[in-house]
Every structure is written in C-alpha cells, then in structure tokens.
Amino acid sequence: MKTFLPEGREENGASFRVHKLTRLAFLTCLSVILILAIRFPILPQAPFLEYEPGDVPMILAGLLYGPGAGLAVTVAASLIQTLTVSSGSGPIGLVMHIVATSALVAIPSFLYRRRCSSGSLAKGLLLGSLVMTLLMIPLNLVMTVWFLGVPRQVVVSMLVPAIIPFNLIKSLSNSALAFLVIGGLSARFRTCPCERRESYEKSER
C-alpha cells in the first residue's frame, strides 16, 4: 500500500520504515550534539547542575512517531551521553536520566496521540515536566544517597533550593522548545504531525 506525502510524493510502507529509522537515528545524534554543544548552569547556588536541550529531540521523537520511538531515542541518547560527556555519573546517572526523561517523553506523546491538538500537547508537556520533576526527588534520595554515597541530609538540603527548581526549569524549557518545533511543523505541512504519522503507519499494514 502507498501513502501520499503533503508534497505530493508517494511513500510505501517499506520506504516509511527506512525513513522512520533514519529520522530516529538523526534525532538521537541531534540530542547528543545538543548535549555536547550547549551546557550552562542556570542556578547560582548549584553551578554543577547544567541545562542542556538534549531532551528536545527525544520529545520530538515521541510526538512524531509514538511513545515507543521516543523512549528508544531516550535510551540511545542517554547511553551515548553517559559514555561521553557525562561519564562521571556512571550507570547511576544513566538510570536516573532514563527514568525521569522517559516521563517527559512518554506522557505528552501518549496524550498527543490520543488527541492531536495544541491544547492536548501543551497539557501533556506540562504534565510530563511536573512528573519528571517529582520523579527526581525520590531518585536523588535513593540513588544519590544509596549508590553514590552522598549524605542524605546534603541531598535533602538541596531539594528545594536546587534540585526541584533546576529540573522544573529544564523540563519546562525543553518542553517549550518542542512545542514550538511541533507548531512549526504543523504550519509547514498544514496538518497535525501525528495525523501524518498515522497515515504512514497504515501503509505498513
């Protein structure tokens, strides 16, 4: 079965699968590049916590190709990040990043898949940001204390002034960037990106 792109080109199921894998690989590479190229502290009281927009391509992968694709890009990019720029955090940092970022990626992509609208997207991104921020509280209390050996009182003292605001600012900023990109794609193709995705997926059946 064939499907037609907005530009008038045909694309069959096999071609779409190849293009999907190519685009997911591109988003994974883009995530790693953004992590490497753009890093800066945003809280004076915690300069070791650095903002980076690497989560944006992960969110886009989920919104464009579904939660499963978004999680796959999240795991792949997080693994590469751990082996390169964030090697000091080790497997503990990898697990924390994957668990927290998965919420930021999966929640909006799931809601956006059910109802393809800017309102649903905004609600999903906001909810994903809040859940990610909340997840980082027990993750830090458990993983950082038990496995990294940081005293519990030190972690607790940093929750309100540093850990919570940092993760909230980071997740909301990356969500806003993803929202703008999806809005641009919708305007470019004059249709909701997830509607285009669903038409492509039908060509695989």
UniProtKB/TrEMBL annotation:
Membrane topology: Multi-pass membrane protein
A GO cellular component entry from the record: plasma membrane
Keywords, sorted A to Z: Cell membrane, Membrane, Transmembrane, Transmembrane helix, Transport
Pfam families: ECF_trnsprt (PF12822)
Location of this chain's protein in the cell: Cell membrane
Transmembrane segments: 24-44, 56-80, 92-112, 124-148
Main localization category: membrane
GO molecular function, one term: riboflavin transmembrane transporter activity
Coiled-coil parts of chain: none
Summary of the function given for this chain in its UniProt record: Probably a riboflavin-binding protein that interacts with the energy-coupling factor (ECF) ABC-transporter complex.
Record-stated family: Belongs to the prokaryotic riboflavin transporter (P-RFT) (TC 2.A.87) family.
PANTHER family registered for this protein in UniProt: RIBOFLAVIN TRANSPORTER RIBU
Name by which UniProt lists this protein: Riboflavin transporter
Originating organism: Jonquetella anthropi DSM 22815
